[in-house]
Design brief:
This protein is α/β, with parallel strands linked by helices. It contains eight helices and nine strands. The protein has one domain: Nucleoside phosphorylase domain (Rossmann fold), CATH 3.40.50.1580. A hairpin with a 2-residue loop joins strand 3 and strand 4. Helix 2 runs parallel beside helix 6 and helix 4 packs across helix 8. The radius of gyration is 17 Å and the shape is globular.
Length: 234
């Protein structure tokens, strides 16, 4: 057990899916896993372990923002020896050709700051996805005919951003979408030599201002979770 994960070592799989919302973890576990068991509920951050097509997998909520994700990923890697981490989350689209419910595979994650920023000092580290996971996810998405976009995203450390100038420049430079966790996930994966990938669903759009109603989000995330599991174990 750790401070934030009240599970024994055998309760956690070497492969973990990381939704931000703990109730999304519950939905995904009940929807996709055989024999899902609640293995963590410390501070309400739910985690479940079960089996997908015979493969043991854990789905653990990571909370909102990089500081929260950093806590769970550090503990999962350092204390539970997790090898593969796939973030499954919502994102705000930033390019006109992206539609709601489209899948986004994050190659890179630009950011202003993360919990790891102080380590690098004046060095701008570029956190990237693990190529094996990224290439496999891209191939599977193509086979399943999922509308998928592959490229750079932006990990913000603030939900209510007051930088419209920055948003304009990110759109201009081809950033696909914005969320709040991936840059730290990729940085920690690089630090500890683990595999990581963010597979995201466009739930709202910064240009068109369209957004999915909350009740529709779970249904729209089905393809994302299925793609993540097939990427991990395919």
């Amino acid at each position: 057990m750790t401070i934030h994960i009240g599970a024994s070592s055998e309760d956690i799989s070497e492969t973990v899916l990381l939704p931000g919302d703990p109730y999304r973890a519950k939905w995904a576990a009940n929807t996709f896993l055989d024999k899902p068991q609640l293995v963590n509920e410390t501070r309400g951050m739910l985690g479940f372990t079960g089996f997908w097509k015979g493969h043991k997998v854990t789905i653990q909520g990571s909370g909102m923002g990089m500081p929260s994700l950093s806590i769970y990923v550090n503990e999962l890697i350092r204390e539970y020896n997790v090898k593969t981490l796939i973030r499954i989350g919502s994102t705000g689209a930033m390019q006109e050709n992206i539609e709601l419910r489209d899948i986004i595979l994050a190659v890179t994650a630009s950011t202003i700051s993360t919990p790891s920023t102080s380590i690098f000092k004046d060095f701008n580290f570029s956190p990237v996805a693990h190529w094996d996971l990224l290439s496999k996810a891209a191939k599977i998405a193509k086979t399943k005919e999922l509308k998928t976009h592959i490229g750079g995203i932006y990990s913000s450390d603030a939900f209510y951003d007051e930088r419209p100038d920055l948003t304009k420049e990110m759109i201009r430079h081809g950033i696909l979408a914005v969320e709040m966790e991936t840059a730290e996930l990729y940085t920690l994966a690089a630090r500890y030599n683990r595999k990581a990938l963010s597979i995201l669903t466009a739930s709202d759009h910064l240009i068109t201002k369209k957004e999915l109603p909350s009740l529709e989000r779970e249904k729209s995330f089905f393809s994302m979770v299925e793609l993540s599991l097939e990427t991990a174990f395919g």
